[in-house]
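Milestone M4 deliverable, item 7.
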Amino acid sequence: MPAYMVLDIEVTDADTYAKYKEAGPPTVAAYGGRYLARGGSVETLEGSWLPSRLVILEFPTVELGRAWWASAEYGPAKALRQASTRTEMLLVDGVSTAPR
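Output delivered:
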């Protein structure tokens, strides 16, 4: 079953965040992941949530999403992101696409 990682990122240190973007998390594909949204414009249709920078990643499973987040390969880039942002991050099960 697919899984989705949803991040709301507020950049607090633009210089360090630029280093994060340069380093990038190149290992996403190695864990079967792909970006579905990455900082595009956001329109609030209901409620008051207005993310600063919304990122959505898709992984084949929750386990692969968690493994990517905890991986040694992502560690240096993650440290830069954590040092330069306030981040809210969720990992959620997707809906099975298998026929019923």
